[in-house]
Specification:
- 75% of the residues lie in helices and 0% in strands.
- It is an all-alpha fold.
């Protein structure tokens, strides 16, 4: 077996392992982008403008790569286990389950719904248990998650 084939088998052995690795890398890229934005805006707030510009440029760069690769990644994920309408699904038995069963919903819908649920939990928890500045911060965080859920729903639905 050549080196090229062995690397290809590790990255995409047909069981989804490669998709998991790519998904983890993509999630780290998205998290790094958000971290760069938060730290960059913090530097703007305290007056370190040169550092802020560098960090915010990194945010735009990483965020751009994330947004450009998110839709195609979800397409690869759904190609691995395609979504079928309920009328097209066959009953699944454990005896002949080969791991390629159809997913109940497209991946972007599942991710968006989970993110929106977290946003609603943070907003409602903030309204119930916090006051003052903490309330405002919880409302901002929860609303941001709701906005991100909408972006995930829309960006995942686009197939570039």
């Amino acid at each position: 077996m050549s080196m090229n084939n062995s690397v290809k088998n590790i990255i995409d052995p047909g069981n989804g392992f490669g998709l998991i690795l790519v998904g983890l890398a993509l999630s780290l890229l998205g998290a790094a982008s958000v971290a760069l934005m938060v730290i960059g805006l913090s530097y703007v707030y305290v007056g370190y403008y040169q550092r802020a510009v560098l960090l915010l440029a990194g945010y735009v760069f990483c965020g751009g790569i994330f947004l450009k690769t998110y839709g195609p990644y979800l397409q690869r994920l759904e190609n691995h286990a395609p979504w079928k309408k309920p009328a097209e699904r066959q009953p699944v038995t454990t005896a002949d389950n080969d791991g390629t069963d159809a997913q109940p919903l497209p991946a972007n819908v599942i991710i968006a719904l989970a993110t929106a649920a977290y946003g609603l939990i943070i907003v409602s928890g903030g309204i119930i248990w916090t006051r003052g500045e903490d309330l405002v911060l919880n409302l901002i965080a929860g609303s941001s998650l709701l906005g991100i859920a909408a972006i995930v729903w829309i960006a995942g639905g686009r197939r570039d």
